[in-house]
Task: structure prediction
Amino acid sequence: MAQAEEQPMQMTLAARAAEAQRATWVSVAVNLVMTAAQLVVGWLAHSQSLIAHGLHSFSDLLSDFLVIYASRRSAHPPDPDHPYGHGRIETAATLVLGIAMTLVGAGILWESGIRLQDAETLPAVEMIALWTAVATVLSKEGVYHYLFAVGRRLRSQLMIANALHTRADAASALVVVVGIGGALLGWGFLDLLAAALMGFMILHMGFKLAWSAIKELIDTGLDEASVAQIEQSLLAMPGVLGVHDLRTRRMAHQALVDVHVQVDARISVSEGHRIAEAARIRVLAEHADVLDMLVHIDAEADHMTDPAALAALPDRAEVLAELQQALTGLPPAQRIVLHYLEGAIEAEITVDYAHLAGDAALADLEKTLTERLAAHPAIRSICLNAGIVSN
Result:
């Protein structure tokens, strides 16, 4: 059964990775052409901003290959070394991409500042640089819309990050168009100023991406609205009396959830487990961004009990030995259920109805047993039931 449930998940991950890689290869092809065009034309046409943008496009190429690698690795199913899957590979790749963009932007900004100090000695920019910059804007903007649509459909932070990187490239190319246009009109320093401004934009975007990935790596939770929706799904589950200690943490495009769910204190362990599993399945079905959820069942709210006092209570073997001694001379117990609630023990004891003379005898027996255990420091109450024991 577990294998049957695992197969669709693996197919979904594989299909997701394949679509991410197809979209990224489109970006690779466009970036490869535009990188070569900008570097060659920028050098021939004496445009520092176009060369700088070509270097940025080259960083796009690196990020595309990073996306291909990360999407392929993150599609691998969980294994003994990675029980939660490989989704954090996307996060790590996003961090690398953000750091790379920050360094590229800082480098361009620094180089432009140095050249601005000597702008009069630089050769004039030629017209072909302007047409190359315009073509870059159009191509980058088209790739951005394509990648962003795929990223949203796959809920991939890395794909969206790559799309935003491409949009930043398109915006910076627009700045390059203005700078080259100004240089062609006689204001040569505008080409260098455009390169400096482009470097600042790249640096800013890279810092935002890196910071977003760092927050995920330190287990930043979902936003308040998403947490509230998960809590409402749990509270709507029949058998759930309360929810507390709801914690979330991001795992690439999905999230992991831990929660304490309160149920009726006197239901069976198996019924409590069934409620927990049903609640987990409900949340996974209603919230597509939740990868998995760990549900802890509580018989009472944690704030009502001192954990140390609860742990100090005698365990089942010790309590049973004392109960058997108290039952000496009385009908034998067929079943004993212990409830550890509010720092004390409540015992439910079932005796064979054949050993009783009637309901009055059961009441007398319960009274006798209660009197024998009245001085017990941990047992708060005794409830006696009569049952028919089949052979």
